[in-house]
Amino acid sequence: MTTITNSKEEALIIREQDVVPLRNRVKEYGVKIGMSILNQTKLITATSELVRNLLKYGGGGKVIIESVSNGRDNGVRVTFIDNGPGIADITLAMKDGYSTGKSLGLGLPGTKRLVNEFDIKTELGNGTTVTITKWKNG
Amino acid sequence: MQNNFLSGLKEHENSLLTIWSQLLIESGSDDGAVEEEESKEFASLFLSALASLNGKFQDSPEFEKVEDLIVGISSSRGKRGFSPRENAQYLTTFKQASSQILSKLIKDSEELYQANLQLNEILDNMTIMTFEAYMRGREDVISRQVDEISEISTPVITVWDGIVALPIIGTLDSSRTQIVMENLLQQIVDTGSSIAILDISGVPAVDSLVAQHLIKTVSATRLMGAECIISGIRPEIAQTVVHLGIDLTGIITKATLASALKTAFDMLQLTVVKRKLV
Amino acid sequence: MERIPILKMGDFLLVTIQVDLYDQLAENLESDLINTISKHSSKGVLIDISAVSIIDSFMGRILGNIAVMSKIMDAQTVVVGMQPAVAITLVELGLSLNGVISALNVERGMDLLRSKMHTSDNEEQDYDDDNE
């Protein structure tokens, strides 16, 4: 089904101080379409995980927040774009318990469980783009 | 002018209606009185729109009204339980009836061909719209039922001061688990209960996925600072759990709701005593 | 730099987190809290997170760290007031905060801390009894 973007904005994330305002913006997008508290919480938690990766491994980058609709449901889509080193083995990175950093290593697979759609594109040396979508009733 | 071919139909509205309702009855997709009113209104509006048509039908405000009407009819037919075939026949029989009238009205075969072509285009477009409306009508029914089911299927009961119970009836899938968790945890907060009993007597089977959902619910309850007891473990459930190698040892499980309640009393340091008759 | 206040109440420390956490703030809280436990030889720590609307893996890890670190320093940590949505999200994320003890609200948390101290006193008593 085709997805339509109703409104969108971009944010530059370069420091840790940018994280809280970004989380709040994403939350506002969720509130605007009447998303439940639980789904809002899952969405901003997923955002928090991914923006940490963006800062830690990607050296900062760009985040796009969109209010989307597919005809049956409304949702919020967040895209994280960095120009970092990329991920060498994406299959491995999506496995529970894997991490190159000092976190608990449930970043990517855990984050995937919190949202309805999860898409990751990465190329060694050319950065990583992660797109997540949370539907209002999803 | 193309539309001249079709504008003549308006004068034969009554005979068209007769043929149409006959065709509808023959096809078995007519349900009587309500239909007739609806059909009359539709035919009248449609033929008037045809008569006043000037240029493309897509741009005509009259046709917009007709389309709104047919969309309304289809969606209500969908909700009343008509089959997709019956829904489609509503307009295909109308097309047949119109063609029959047209063939009597127009003698020139080229003109008749052009008229039928235009009629086809307009009505086919509407048939597609009715299909979409019909589907939406059915989907509305489904989503309303889903809401109702999820609402009635997770009643949280306060069984004692500080103890809530939630009987689960039916299968536990991931979306249901979410609702169960949300309701249970919210109720724990609202009542300030420190023990929750999850009764699974009504769950037909526990496979590894269902067990995972149960474990998640228990973990979430503990994170909130309450304890969760699972009751209603039938012998066959105990067997499958062990055969599948599911580890439930971290969870307090009881065979019946009564024994779970007893455990809850123990945890709250409550005792139930029989009153002595003096 | 922004810091979360730590209140001393007798043998216990009380932390009420009123703002949404970010990594640096959480890390500061961890070190501040451990230092304060050591300074006052506190026996218990109560962390109220009822106003926190998001806990991700990093902040979850900090909470776990605090629990384990304080335990080594002979102080019991109780986390109170977690919101249902936060609890469900943590579980979905795959975090169960092992080692962290929770309570529904501040009152229950205090009761829990007191009873923990009580039982640990009793255990010592029992041990003495056994030796006799």
Automatic annotation (TrEMBL), chain A:
It comes from the Bacteria. InterPro entries: HATPase_C_sf, HATPase_dom. SMART domains: HATPase_c. Residues 38-138 form the Histidine kinase/HSP90-like ATPase domain. Pfam families: HATPase_c. This is Anti-sigma regulatory factor. It comes from Flavobacterium frigidimaris.
Automatic annotation (TrEMBL), chain B:
The keyword Amino-acid biosynthesis does not apply. Residues 153-264 form the STAS domain. It holds the Pfam family STAS. The keyword tRNA processing does not apply. Transmembrane segments: none annotated. It comes from the Bacteria. Keywords: Phosphoprotein. InterPro entries: Bact_StressResp_Reg (IPR051932), RsbRD_N_dom (IPR025751), STAS_dom (IPR002645), STAS_dom_sf (IPR036513). This is Anti-anti-sigma factor.
From TrEMBL, chain C:
InterPro entries: Bact_StressResp_Reg (IPR051932), STAS_dom (IPR002645), STAS_dom_sf (IPR036513). Transmembrane segments: none annotated. Residues 2-113 form the STAS domain. CDD domains: STAS_RsbR_RsbS_like. This is Anti-anti-sigma factor.
